[in-house]
Write a structure and sequence with these properties.
Layout (H helix, E strand, L loop, with lengths): L1 E2 L10 H13 L6 E5 L4 E4 L6 E2 L8 H15 L10 H15 L7 H18 L3 E4 L8 E6 L2 E7 L6 E4 H11 L4 H12 L4 H25 L9 H16 L4 H7 L1
Antiparallel strand pairs: 1-3, 2-3, 4-6, 5-8, 6-7
Helix pairs in contact: 3-7, 4-7, 5-7, 7-8, 7-9
Length: 259
């Protein structure tokens, strides 16, 4: 059972999240939504008996990584959702919210913003590949069933951030979330797309940098809103630092041109 947190309606479209969760259930990759009442702020979802949440440590295993990629391929291959909210709309929204709240950002934020703008321009120029996306690859959202340490099934839960979004972002944000090196990233890109092409690799890599700008901007504005015992500011600055790492890569401008 989920009871909606106060203020969560500011960044979660409940009707859309339920639509996405039910669509994923119909695809066989998510538990069933048993009850939904937006007025009372209550949601009840089928309990996954015999499953546990994945952890960061699990994603050092290739079978966990491949299972996630297969879940994404299934969900991204479904029919489009009723609402499109791409990563650039999300990121711009967080930046505007941060401006209003007086969020504390890195000293070189204007430079980071310039590189983000170049990425946005490159994606828009090449055309967004919009598909239903989950958009939130926190390890705990991947529920796994094991038999003698072998994966027998994996389900994807928590569709609060779901929307139609750029396909490459779904992979990019996951690859960044679990700290994958380039060789492993290439293997997973090939598993998802069925091939390795320079423009696809560039697209996913640029999306990975954009993901860090998105979540960094979310975190520093969230710091101004929440009194939870979690250091949102540290988390956000760390995300910005990871974006900076890719922006500073000597291949950055080439990746943008390849898209």
């Amino acid at each position: 059972m989920k009871v909606y947190g106060i203020g969560s309606e500011n960044f979660v479209n409940r009707d859309l999240s339920i639509e996405a969760a039910r669509q994923a259930h119909d695809l066989g990759i998510a538990p069933n939504v048993l009850h939904y009442d937006k007025e009372t702020g209550l949601e009840v979802v089928e309990f996954l008996t015999g499953y546990r949440a994945s952890t960061n440590a699990d994603f050092s295993r290739m079978d966990f990584l491949e299972s996630v990629i297969d879940l994404y391929a299934a969900f991204n291959g479904g029919k489009q959702l009723s609402k499109t909210k791409d990563v650039f709309e999300m990121t711009d929204e967080h930046i505007e919210q941060g401006d209003e709240l007086g969020a504390i950002r890195p000293a070189e934020f204007e430079w980071l913003l310039k590189q983000y703008g170049k990425a946005k321009q490159a994606f828009v120029a090449s055309g967004l590949d919009l598909v239903p996306c989950h958009n939130d690859p926190m390890p705990g959202n991947f529920m796994v069933q094991l038999d003698a340490d072998e994966i027998t099934d994996m389900k994807l839960i928590d569709y609060e951030f779901a929307s139609n979004n750029e396909r490459a972002y779904e992979l990019g944000v996951f690859l960044g979330e679990v700290f994958l090196d380039e060789a492993t990233s290439l293997n997973l890109i090939e598993r998802y797309y069925g091939e390795i092409r320079a423009e696809v690799v560039a697209r996913v890599t640029v999306a990975r940098a954009v993901a860090d700008m998105k979540w960094g901007s979310w975190a520093v504005q969230q710091r101004q809103l929440s009194d939870w015992d979690f250091d949102y500011q540290k988390y956000g600055i760390w995300k910005y630092a990871r974006a900076r790492m890719l922006f500073n890569d000597p291949r950055w401008d080439n990746w943008l041109r390849m898209m």
